[in-house]
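An instance follows:
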Amino acid sequence: MSVEVTGSTVPRRQLGRYLRELRNRQRMTIRAAAEQLEWSEAKMWRIETGQTSLRSFDVEVMCRIYGAPADLTEALMGLAKETKARGWWQAYGDVIPEGFDVYIGLEEAASQLSWYEQELVPGILQTEGYARTLIEADNPDMGEQEISRRVHVRMARQPLIRRATAPVQLQVALNEAILRRPVGGPQVMAGQLDQLVQVSGLPNVSLRVAPFSAGVHPGVMSGPFVILRFPAGGDGRDTEPATVYKDGFTGALYLDKPQEVERYARAFGSIQAACLDHDASRSLIRQAAEELRT
């Protein structure tokens, strides 16, 4: 009897998504691809929906058939090596090349993000000036062209909030310290705070602040995290399991075991309970912006 490997399904799901996109770009049906690979259509479906792991050799063959460029082939082969892991710790620049951002793919597929941040404005809400300051500080030896490319990638995530069809439902809880740290100087920071006020007025966005006066709450211990939830399918069940993402200094942690997700969901609820309400949060953000202008 085969025993399914426990642990995160994130790398399998992400690998399947990329392989499906490559096949579609070639206008190749599942049947045609299965015939070339000498696999069953059922196996192709399991691969593309993240139901099974893959050898890096098999990924290389699929990429060749789909006409994938060499750098993407290398990245997907690295991702395939992680599909058999019991838990998944992605160390950037190790197995998977830097710049192959699995999180962005998950974010684009998500229908809801529940996001807690302690120190910095979430990337999906950053202004260009704020983002550039952070990227330059984190990459002091990087050239201007690469800095600009990374800023562009961060800005390209933001339409998810405003897209006309099914904009992502965004719940954000921010530590008050974020409002008080003048990233990029007073002018850049005031502009960033203005954007937070503007975005908080969207019907699909809830943005609240945990004030210093709240004292100790679960976010103090948990650190920043994002809970990603995905659209329901025709049967009413989620198309993908909810996933917790935690970014780290040397890598990123993805958790999707139900008990792990539930623990972070409870923490997020408690953090929200410690936050100011919507109107009071907007007032505090406006006040912080005005203080920077005086």
Residues 1-7, 87-97 have pLDDT under 50 and may be disordered.
